[in-house]
Specification:
By secondary structure, this protein is mainly alpha-helical. The chain is built from seven helices and two strands. Strands 1-2 form a two-stranded antiparallel sheet.
Length: 117
């Protein structure tokens, strides 16, 4: 899931700093986050509580702090009228995620939202 450049990306380093973890731990968190999203937030819209997300990805720290760090670091965006979404997921999802989305006959939130506006 993680593309080249993620381990040294400024957003990853910011996430690590915000959570007080090593950068490799932030990469691991992002990896399981994206795997979870590809199944349970397939369109990129995160309609789960921070606590449910933390439980699902086995994050044992403060769930709200983790979610806030994902937002502050720029990996999750808040979009008016949509909610919390995976940052630029239509551009960055891997082929398996895109194939599963197509098989489910759905669009990424941004594609659906743009066609409505």
């Amino acid at each position: 899931m993680a593309k080249r450049g993620v381990p040294e990306h400024p957003k990853t380093l910011r996430l690590a700093r915000l959570l007080g973890v090593e950068p490799w731990a932030a990469v691991g968190l992002l990896e399981v986050f994206w795997h979870w999203c590809s199944r349970y937030a397939i369109t990129g819209v995160i309609n789960h509580s921070p606590e449910d997300l933390a439980d699902s990805i086995r994050y044992s720290g403060n769930a709200q702090a983790m979610f806030s760090a994902l937002v502050s670091a720029g990996w999750v965006d808040q979009v008016d009228g949509v909610g919390f979404v995976v940052h630029d997921i239509a551009d960055h999802a891997d082929n398996t995620w895109k194939a599963n989305l197509k098989r489910a006959n759905k669009l990424f939130w941004s594609e659906s939202w743009q066609s409505q506006n």
